[in-house]
Design goal:
Helix content is about 0%, strand content about 50%. The chain is mainly beta and about 725 residues long. A hairpin with a 3-residue loop joins strand 40 and strand 41. The longest helix has 11 residues. The chain is flat and about 90 Å long. It starts with 5 loop residues before the first strand and ends in a 15-residue tail after the last strand.
Length: about 725
Amino acid sequence: MSDGRTFFAASHSGNIGVFDTYTLEQRVLRGHSDQVLGLALLPGGRLASASWNGELRVWTVATGGGTLVAKRPSLTALATFGPTIAASRDRELVVVDAGAKVRTIPLEVTQPFGLAFGPNGKEIFVGGADGKVRLVDLQTDTVVRESEAGEPIARLAVDPNGRFLATGRRDGRVLILDLGTLQRRSEVHANGGAVRALAVSKDGRVWTNGMDGRIAAWNPDTGALAAEVSTHLDQVTSLSITEDQVSLVVTGTGGSEIWNLAAMPRERVIPPDPHPILDIAFSADGRELVSGSNNRILVWDTATGRPLTDIQRYGNRSRDVALDVANQKVVGADERGGMALWELPSGRPLGTLGTRAIVPLGLVYSPQYDLAAVGTNEGAILVYALAARALRFELVDPAGSAVRALALAPDGATLYSSSTDGSLRAWDLAKQKATVLHRVTTGNHGLALSKDGTRLVATSLDGTALVLDVASAAVTPLGHFPGRLYRPAFSPDGGTVALPCSDGNAYVVDVAGRVAPRVVTGAHGEVNVAAFSPDGRILGIGSDDHTVRLYDAATGKPRWGARSAPTVKSAVPSEPGATAALELPTCQVVGFDSGMVEVRPTAGGATLVLRDTPPHPVTHIVAGPSATLALGFADGTFGVWDPGSGRALDRAILHGQLASLSVKGGVVDVETELGDRGSVDLSLLGVDYCALMSDLWKRTPFVWREGSIRVEAPTGGRCPRPDVGR
């Protein structure tokens, strides 16, 4: 209600609970003889309700008295605007005006579960089984506008700013329509299963809940996930925004929850992948990139360096990934069946292509030819039909050696493979027969095909690489490099290859040998994979230091970088493993390459080792707010520790090694070398205790006294009693 403290919840029995969120008092409104399907507020402290058996009632909340204002069989939805009530049923709209006069408007719509008033209350939107939204003019009782047909509509919600109409569908999507024209503006892939609850907050976010149980907020313009709520309810049945736009009210099996909208994140922040990056691939337009580790898949915005989609992988032995933005899919090798698919941008699982448990190595994905393939450590290549999501056939390596990488010819007729026995094979997919193109004694590891399909580049763990002409089998050695070579890449023009190396560098090699190889540096661990963007302007690498790095392919200049100056660090003690240090009046703090941090009292006494530090080199130690320690680590972890107890007060992880860490005004600010930023605000630790408690009492003016909650300030204690009023 408008008092900001009362909310209502309907039960399966037909009762309506009235809850005072200040005193936790509860009353029950009784009158319905069937399950209540909807509740809506009316002016003057009144409430409208509708039940599945067709009862439409109006309640005076203060007295608990209710009146049956209409009865129509099988109502499906309820909405109010001011004193006007509307309820829907098959082929009919029931309207009750301020004088309790009931009228019926015929409609050619079945299962009208979507019902919402327009911003001026003179029109109402109705959505049903045919997927159309109909705009009904309540002054003429006629349909004045319709949207196109589509998937059946489950819920409707109007943007309070008057910009759009959100339509929740039974297939889990939310289509955003222009409020004036009912033309489609955008689409949100929101839930697994039908949208069960839908609301739009004043800030424009679209809140949904579906059969998958999650509550999420979406950006209606981009379809990106903005926030998620971890509800404790078993089953959510409704979402609503309070009249003052302060809270999100979630109701379902097991009770109700109230969430402060202002305290929720304005956008979803996806943490980086804390595991070695084993594969990367660009989208066709180069605007997005997918990275894969054994445990996670992230989709990145190549312009900003921020993750857009986060996917948890099954098991811990999958590696390869592919990105299909045109069909809104992420594809990854998968232990459960060879290959798994996920939806973009939600990351919702779409299933696997097979049922055979394998260790997948190498991946090909081609919607153009309705083909996908994955290699295995048993020497087999599983070839799938994408549309049918079924295994077409299996190619078997005669030597039985593990497949390491795959590549598909531009015409889709030939599949190339590299194996641990050193063989490079060309598979005729029509005949399911292989030809050995080349064999090396050191074994092949990585493989890539030029865009025109004329040349292969292959790498070995002994540091050698070669280019093979597919037609003639002529070999061009690329040289020997100071480390193991992993998963290479051809530039789009075929003139350059990028070789990721275990020495922490990537080598950009001119195939014709006209210039010396260029060394791309920056990674703090083995570089596992390289990839060029489709236009050839960007070179991407993934490495063991958990990072994805993008470079200008022509100059080698990093595309993602820190904007602030690196922090000037204190001198490091000359003792084994020490990487960072800080001298304080009462102690010396020393960090080590193992991640251990010691606090050594200057006056003597036992050394304290801080708890919960990550197993990575300490890069920064700075005096934090209120006698705390602010620490940074090579894996991007940063946080604040209490040097007295050794406990971590707060910690997080960013993408890339920390470049700067500073403390100002009680706030710890950090930035990584890849431009990722974070902060920890501990300014409250510097606030006077009584001032803080006074503010807390004003926000929550309740005490437990004589067996009940009372609205009054606490007495006693070391602070004066605040004047909180009611």
